Amino acid sequence: MTLIETDPPLAEPVTLAGLKAHMRIDLNDEDALLESLIRVARTHLEAVTGTALMQRGLRLVLDDWPDGPVIELLRTPVQSIDAIRVYDIDGLPREPALSGVLLDATARPARLAVSDRLRPGQPINGIEIEFTAGFASANEIPPELIRAILVHAAHLYEFRGAVSADMQPAAIPQGYERLIAPWMRRGL
C-alpha cells in the first residue's frame, strides 16, 4: 500500500504573516526559512495524524484488494473519489463504475467500500484509487491543529542553529502532543 501525492496543496494552512505575528518577528530577513519551517511542521503533523490539512490530490496504490470489505485511504477528510483503476495483465487500466462505491469521508482514516472489485492482472501495484483529501479552506482546519503548526514551527526556528534544515523536525515542543492528541491515529 503506497500513498502518493498527485496534486500538492496550493497553500499552507498557516501563512508567513501568521507565523511572524505568533513569533513577534517584524523583519523579513528569514522569510524563506520561516516558510520552510511551516512546511516541515505541516508535513510532520499530517504524517502523525493521517489528516490532510489543505486540499490536494492523492493516489492510493494497492497490490490487491484487502481481505475485508473496507479499504483505509490513509488520509482524512476525503472530499471525493475521483477514479479507480484496476490494471490487467497487459498493464491496461479498467475503471469500475464509481456508482458502486461507499465512502466514509470523515472517519480517521477515511474508509472506502467498493462493490465492483475487478481482479488486478499484475501482481504489484494493480489497483489505483485517486481521491481528493483535505479541508476545503484554512478556515475549516481545527484551531488546535493550526496552533500545533505555529508552536512546532516556532520551536524549530528557536533551534535552527543546533540542527540543520534537512534534519528537521529534530524536536517536538512541550504540549504539542496534547494539542494533536484527539487527531492521533491509534493502533492496537
List the helices and strands and how they pair.
Layout: E1 2-7, H1 16-23, H2 31-49, E2 56-62, E3 71-72, E4 78-87, E5 93-94, E6 101-104, E7 111-114, E8 127-133, H3 143-158, H4 176-180
Antiparallel strand pairs: 1-2, 2-8, 3-7, 4-5, 4-8, 6-7
Quick description:
With 188 residues, the protein is α+β, with helices and mostly antiparallel strands. The chain is built from four helices and eight strands. A hairpin with a 6-residue loop joins strand 6 and strand 7.
Any overview of this molecule?
The protein has 188 residues and is α+β, with helices and mostly antiparallel strands. It folds into two domains: 11-52 and 138-183, no CATH class; 56-133, no CATH class. The protein is 26% helix and 22% strand. It has four helices and eight strands. The strands form two sheets. The chain has a five-stranded antiparallel β-sheet with strand order 1-2-8-4-5, with no helix packed on it. Strands 3-7-6 form a three-stranded antiparallel β-sheet, with no helix packed on it. The chain is elongated, with a radius of gyration of 19 Å.
